[in-house]
Automatic annotation (TrEMBL):
It holds the Pfam family PEP-CTERM. Residues 170-194 form the Ice-binding protein C-terminal domain. The keyword tRNA-binding does not apply. The keyword Repressor does not apply. Keywords: Signal. This is PEP-CTERM sorting domain-containing protein. Residues 1-24 form the signal peptide.
Length: 203
């Protein structure tokens, strides 16, 4: 009877672990790999979304009017951060809170961007911004992005500065905790079998 109860307990633990879905965030890391002229712009950023949003397909958009009105579609978006730097004009760093509040950019800046994907697929979209004396445009196609920045001052006057890079997507692996749990159950079962005395046989 004790063996049956222990077996039932172990089976219950295994079923509970198996039915608990692994959940973690997916990170899209935008990493610059080149640009022309060299050193003209330095930029990068990350988008963090839930694994469910990534599995269903991304549907993100953001707009900021020159007057400061913000409109976003951010289903499944957990976090975001971006930085941009160019000689003579300094550095701009933005967080998700900045984007939602329409802050962190020079007054009068307008922004329009979109990023979508098929279920579990690579992203595609664009991000454009313009303001007093500057223009920024970029596009993402799968695992690559590229764009151009122009300004009335600094290193990117005239035809501006081109840039390009890769999108590295980090998808979570099955939960290590669940795997450890299965291992613990197996060890517990093995130990119980060793401690269970042999049953006498009938003469």
């Amino acid at each position: 009877m004790k063996m049956l109860r222990a077996g039932g307990l172990l089976a219950g633990i295994v079923l509970a672990l198996a039915s608990t879905p692994a959940s973690a965030d997916v990170v899209l890391n935008f990493q610059q790999t080149g640009g022309s002229p060299a050193g003209g712009v330095t930029l990068g950023g990350t988008l963090t979304v839930t694994d469910q949003a990534y599995a269903d397909g991304l549907n993100l958009s953001h707009s900021l009017s020159a007057g400061g009105a913000v409109s976003t579609v951010n289903t499944g978006l957990v976090d975001a951060s971006f930085f941009f730097s160019t000689p003579g004009l300094g550095t701009v760093s933005l967080t998700l809170a900045d984007l939602l509040a329409g802050s962190g950019l020079p007054a009068g800046t307008s922004v329009l961007g979109s990023l979508t994907s098929s279920a579990g697929g690579t992203p595609g979209g664009f991000l454009n911004a313009s303001g007093l004396g500057f223009g920024f445009r970029s596009s993402t196609d799968g695992n690559l992005f590229s764009g151009n920045f122009t300004a009335a001052l600094g290193a990117c006057t005239g035809n501006g500065c081109d840039f390009n890079g890769t999108v590295v997507t980090t998808v979570p692996e099955p939960s290590a905790l669940s795997l450890m749990g299965f291992g613990a159950v197996a060890l517990l079962a093995a130990g119980y079998r060793k401690r269970t005395p042999a049953q006498p046989t009938a003469a």
